[in-house]
């Protein structure tokens, strides 16, 4: 995970957008770029500020952080338990939802429909709900995997592209 001091590599304009969103996250924040550029770190920092440090806007019961692989596995589990509707309802209504690493795995059609229902619900309530999406996929690949309907909604808010190189790779 990147060090806090490494986020200063982002441009002042990018940092201003991130800080404005972090103060009161509403609508969509899409963080896109290569692996190891700080997308997940920034998403986690916003989540932590509102949950772990009890800033006034959210508490732990009003926010949810999950990566796509875990979301897919949880969706399958909830399907088996016949509780997928309740799980979807939690994701739809939580004040701050963070989906990390969207697109790392191509979704099944049924999971794509599940994800669309969440994204669409939250898009229709973007003036009261915050959604942060991170991805290391290009827009073209993400569109191919999830379709235009999902991409047009998540890209309707603040989009920040990180063009840095992967900081986690070391020469060995």
Provide structural commentary.
With 172 residues, this protein is of the alpha/beta class. The chain has a domain at 18-25 and 53-130 and 146-165. It has seven helices and five strands. It has helices at residues 12-23, 39-50, 68-80, 84-93, 109-123, 139-146, 148-154; strands spanning 27-33, 63-67, 96-100, 130-135, 158-162. A five-stranded parallel β-sheet has the order 2-3-4-1-5. Strand 3 (96-100), helix 5 and strand 4 form a beta-alpha-beta unit. The longest helix is centred in the C-terminal third of the chain and has 15 residues, at 109-123. It is globular. Residues 1-6 have low confidence and may be disordered.
Précis, in short:
The chain is α/β, with parallel strands linked by helices. The chain has helices at residues 12-23, 39-50, 68-80, 84-93, 109-123, 139-146, 148-154, and strands at 27-33, 63-67, 96-100, 130-135, 158-162. It has a domain at 18-25 and 53-130 and 146-165.
Order of helices and strands: HEHEHHEHEHHE
Helical residue percent band: 40-55%
Which consecutive residue ranges, at least 5 long each, have pLDDT under 50? 1-6
β-strand percent reads 15-25%
Main beta sheet strand tally, sense and closure: 5 strands, parallel
Which structural class is indicated by helix and strand composition?
A: alpha/beta
Shape: globular
Distance between the termini: 18 Å
- Tally of DSSP β-strands: 5
What is the overall pLDDT average?
A: 85
Any idea what the radius of gyration is? 16 Å
Give the strand order, joined by hyphens, for the main sheet.
2-3-4-1-5
């Amino acid at each position: 995970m990147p060090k806090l001091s490494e986020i200063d590599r982002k441009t002042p304009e990018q940092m201003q957008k991130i800080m404005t969103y972090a103060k009161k996250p509403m609508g969509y924040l899409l963080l896109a770029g290569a692996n190891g550029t700080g997308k997940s770190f920034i998403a986690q920092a916003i989540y932590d500020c509102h949950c772990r440090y009890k800033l006034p806007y959210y508490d732990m019961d009003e926010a949810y952080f999950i990566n796509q692989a875990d979301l897919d596995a949880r969706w399958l589990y909830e399907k088996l338990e016949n509780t997928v509707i309740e799980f979807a309802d939690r994701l739809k209504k939580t004040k701050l939802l963070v989906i990390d690493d969207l697109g790392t795995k191509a979704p099944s059609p049924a999971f794509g429909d599940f994800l669309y229902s969440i994204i669409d619900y939250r898009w229709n309530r973007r003036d009261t709900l915050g959604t942060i999406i991170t991805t290391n996929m290009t827009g073209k690949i993400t569109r191919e995997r999830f379709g235009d309907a999902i991409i047009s909604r998540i890209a309707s808010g603040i989009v920040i592209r990180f063009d840095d190189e992967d900081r986690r790779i070391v020469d060995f």
